[in-house]
Specification:
The complex is a heterotetramer, with two copies of chain A (about 150 residues) and two copies of chain B (about 80 residues).
Chain A: E1 2-5, H1 11-19, E2 27-34, E3 38-39, E4 42-43, E5 46-51, H2 55-70, E6 73-81, E7 83-85, E8 90-98, H3 101-118, E9 121-127, E10 130-133, H4 138-145
Chain B: E1 2-5, H1 7-13, E2 17-19, H2 29-39, H3 41-46, E3 54-57, E4 60-62, E5 73-77
Parallel strand pairs in B: 1-5
Antiparallel strand pairs in B: 1-2, 3-4, 3-5
The chains are: A alpha+beta (about 150), B alpha+beta (about 80).
């Protein structure tokens, strides 16, 4: 399941509903991304996430389908927020449940790595020097490249 | 065709969305970018370094040699920074 | 922080208190282990976790300290239950928070892999054929061996 | 010294905990296991294949050649299966 929304999410409730009643699940791995108050040595007072409505959902669904093709998952979830956020706010939740922990870990790691390079979101950071569009990181490209199929 | 701009591409072009009808000589994304650069200083600035621009046609990533036709939704934006 | 307890835990509340107020945290990775209703092809009606009080806490603390030595973590948590559990029940929660997602992912994965081979817990599964002590898995040894320092 | 047994080692020895005073000739864990096997059929069964047994002295994992002395807390158990 994927969701793109402005409002916050409740990690506990989301994880609970993901596994609830499915007793084949042995492991649930999740990742929460949070707004930091510092980036590249500069203090950050706010972050505004712009996205491409329509394409975002299409890309997130494609990423999730790919994870389900690669690993035997019982459930998966991506929630990504957009709009104005402040330090400490939750940005994204990715979760994968499987019979065994390795599949849950790898699929969750894959989802966040791919999402970082494929999902059409852009971050505008508010700093004392003004607003800056965040540059993409080569480390994110490298992380996603690990999952490329040879 | 419908053009969409995001993030600093949007702030440089000065608009988030526009509808254009380029001449028949505009066959692919690269042609479209060259044509847009001739139309105004904002676009010329936004597209001054094409290596910084990512393109989606009908919400899928494409390369510069991807064909464009009337009715397409074509989006230009910087490398994504979500997650 | 480590806790060994009989009672259930609230994943959402635990994760929230782990990151709360620390705006240096950019990523929080967590793993929840759950009781499956099937194991080795046999249906499982209940699982009883025996442990070695004292040594359990000592080993979990040592594992957590090692993770904090290896990765720059802002917070880490291991909660492991003991006693009688049923399919769908939560067994273990491992969570790691860091400025960056790679450290959070790797440390969390390390913790659960090492815990599986170092923490003195033993599982007694209730099946239609009677109660069976669960055998250790060579795949768990292999998973832990990946983290051995060369 | 205090001996602890867990999981199927406990069910085979028939006890979870006992205090013993082995002779001075028992210097290390291997000696202790041999001495215990002579004391009763439960221990002989539990320790019949030493490769299946893990040992902790004072709550740290040790090998069979680890010394044992009066006052030690020594635990015997199968490979762990937590998590």
């Amino acid at each position: 399941m994927i969701r793109v929304q402005r409002k916050d999410f409740d990690v506990g409730a989301e994880l609970k509903s993901l596994t609830n009643g499915n007793h084949q699940i042995g492991g649930l791995t999740s990742f929460v991304g949070l707004v930091r108050d510092i980036a590249g040595g500069q203090s950050v007072s706010a972050m505004t996430l712009e996205h491409y409505p329509g394409m975002t959902e299409k890309q997130l669904s494609a990423i999730e389908e790919e994870a389900n093709r690669r690993w035997p998952l019982d459930a998966s979830l991506i929630i990504h927020r957009h709009g104005r956020l402040e330090p400490g706010d939750q940005i994204v939740l990715v979760a994968c449940a499987s019979a065994h922990r390795e599949a849950a870990f790898e699929a969750c790691h894959f989802l966040i790595d791919w999402l970082k390079t494929k999902a059409p979101f852009w971050k505008l950071e508010g700093t004392p020097d003004g607003d800056n569009w965040v540059d993409s990181k080569s480390s994110d490209d490298d992380a996603a490249a690990r999952w490329a199929k040879g | 065709m419908k053009l969409l701009y995001f993030a600093w591409v949007r702030t440089k072009t000065g608009t988030g969305e526009e509808t254009v009808s380029p001449p028949d000589s505009v066959c692919d994304v690269a042609d479209l970018i060259e044509w847009l650069k001739l139309r105004g200083s904002g676009a010329a600035d936004a597209f001054s370094d094409p290596s910084l621009i990512r393109v989606a046609v009908n919400q899928d990533y494409v390369e510069l040699d991807h064909p464009v036709i009337a009715g397409d939704e074509i989006a230009f934006f910087p490398p994504v920074t979500g997650g």
